[in-house]
Amino acid sequence: MTRETPLLARYAEGLFWMARYLERVENLARLVDVTQNFEAPGREAESWFALVRINADEENYFKQGRTIDAEQVKHFYLLDAANPTSIPASLDAARTNARKLRPLISTEMWMQLNVFHRDMMAIAPDDLQGDRLSHICRLLKEGVQTHTGITEGTFFRDQGWFFYQLGRLIERADQTTRLLDIRYHILVPAVVDEERRVTELTQWGSVLRAAAGYHAFRRVAPPGFTPEDVVAFLLTDTAFPRSVALCVEQMEWLLGQLRSRYGLRGTVAALERVEELRAAILGRPVGRIIADGLHHFLDGVQRDLILLAAEIGTAFFRDWRPLAEAQSQAQSQSQSQAA
Amino acid sequence: MQFSPTDPFRDYAPGPYFCELTSQRADDQGTARSVQARIATIGLDALHARAAAAETELINLGITFTVYSEASAIDRILPFDCIPRVITANEWRTLEAGVKQRVAALNAFLHDIYHDARVVKDGIIPADLVFGNANYRPEMKDFPVRFGTYVHICGTDIVRDAQGRFMVLEDNARTPSGVSYVVENRHLMSRAFPDLMSGIRLRPVDDYGRRLLEAMTEIAPEGVDDPQVVLLSPGIYNSAYFEHVFLSREMGVPLVEGADLMVEDDRVWMRTTGGRRPVHTIYRRIGDDFLDPTVFRPDSMLGVPGLIGAWRRGNVTLANAVGTGVADDKAVYAYMPRIIRYYLDEDAILQNVETHICREPGGLAHTLANLENLVVKPVGESGGYGITIGPRATKAQIEAARAALIADPANWISQPVISLSVGPTLTDQGIRPRHLDLRPFAVTGRQTWVLPGGLTRVALKEGSLVVNSSQGGGSKDTWVLDDGAP
Fold first, then answer.
1. N or C: which terminus of chain A has fewer CB atoms within 10 Å of its end residue's CB?
2. Do A310 and A296 fall into the same domain?
3. Closest alpha carbon within chain B to A265
4. ipTM given for this complex
5. Residue among A103, A114, A316 minimizing CB distance to B254
6. Is position A292 within any domain?
7. B2 falls in which pLDDT band (50, 70, 90)?
């Protein structure tokens, strides 16, 4: 029955980016939620501004005359469609991709995304006040999770599905590194006295909750766990869905399937990148990584993920757009708009 | 028939017009009565509530067309009226035969004018109307098309006068749109109003995609075993993009944009993740002018450089063929009864509306003398633009039309106002008559198949005769009753 149908390069690119943008929405909602939990009395502005640093958005943030201020950060990420890393911009980009993909994706996927987009575009400044912010974050998470569930249950699993999953996992791994990096920007410095130690563990608990990994972590963590165990969990656990190692493992499988099942030979360079990523994450004990500087390490992982996305783009997406200049791909954190 | 005081049809009065539900038809199988009774049972309030829910669903599903104004793009639905338009089995037999006849004549005419042009030599139609037509494509001269089919997809706009006679208002032989609404309206109807339909035997409309794909496969270049069909769309910003999505899904073929295709060695390829894959038939939803910037408009970003070359070499088929626009020109339309007789040796099954051609002195004089009673239309426009309806026009509008006519008579035709038929339509004031038309869709590869029914467009404004979606028109589900006979 099954007839092998070719996949338009443009569709593959659209699926990859639709998944990425939606994963970004969910994770940004998680980050906003956890930031609110970190908000220390008297230090709200700094806590919120950490979000900007985690996303490496400082330049763009200040360009429009913003100052370090909690409300302005919330506005920047939740309301400002002109900010390319904001939730409305990501949702818009996801929907535009979905619109291009309507011939391919299920009607149910399109309809949910269409309605979700419309509802979230209606978020107003009032919705960011008090407990409503947490409510909005929940709606955003649930919207993406609904999308994920509908996709799982209705999206045809030929080639396109593999590109969709690749986009999602690359974004997810990237977002987990940013969540981990929060320690560098917000958390109190590691010190010996008991009270500070408890405070720090509480904050790491919030990081785990933001990643929906708190309970799973408690199950596998040693009784007297330390921050190092949390980092190891988010970085290297092979059962936790948002751990970087698990994402990388799945990317490898997906690329291998594209090669063996669909005969796509362009996967070689991408697979080499995945190999390097895996070596970086699992090649030495987490204790060493932390001792050498976690922030620096996470930066490196983020760069590797960008290079991986670029290899996939070069191999499978670019061909349909011969006029586009070869871009400086180290910066390709968002989809090129040339068409 | 007895009406209860709460019957929504109590005040329904179609007046002098033919009503597509309530006017007596011998073979209506009691459908009209049963639909009215069921509507009464549901009640006006519930009808309004369900209609609103149905329209919300259309928005959520993105079954929309995009309207562009100066500043913004708005996705609008084609308003859906839940009271169906009913075509009886006998009426449909006439319509179907008439549409097939018309398509056959259009194709014969196109073949002729791009070969020997006997129709011109024999004096059936003036030469300048054909060769001087902006849509006449010299590139088509002596070019062979499979099965002599130029117009693979045709939409024929049909109206009905006060006596119930069907008449053709115009042919759409380029890239007619609207068929997606025929199918989606039926789906919507069966979701939202199953109790209106149950037990009534209707001809199904779900077969369109399969028939279309079959035709697109038939017309692929000879010798290709398993042809790759694609639908070429201008992309997501085109107002008919939903329909392009619909058709590509129903056919199960890729929806491509110009940039997805490339031509090398006079062959057309599409860019896939696995490299280039050959393409054999292109159902194109972009106009001739935009197909190939190396041949037609050099500024076109929608087309594919080299496409016409590949097509001339016979390596790819375009549907519809290039140059069909000359056949659906409103001035050529006036000659259609003669064209049908000339090629098929038959009388037209569906009448034309009497048409005065203003490029001819007699037609111009008659039009100028009777502007207040005529509909004046530009020959090249579609979408209901540029039309002046004499009896409805203001003095200033009449004078503007007069000036335009005198300035460029060849751009205009005129027709008497037809008392378009009406259908009961749900309005804020209750159920009221509204004017409507019908666009059946014919698909032709080796032979012609007509989708039962077609798109019924309804002018939602009281008294309005303009049914176009861009100008306040809506649509209805179109029922063709099945009497079991072929």
1. N
2. yes
3. B274
4. 0.89
5. A103
6. yes
7. low
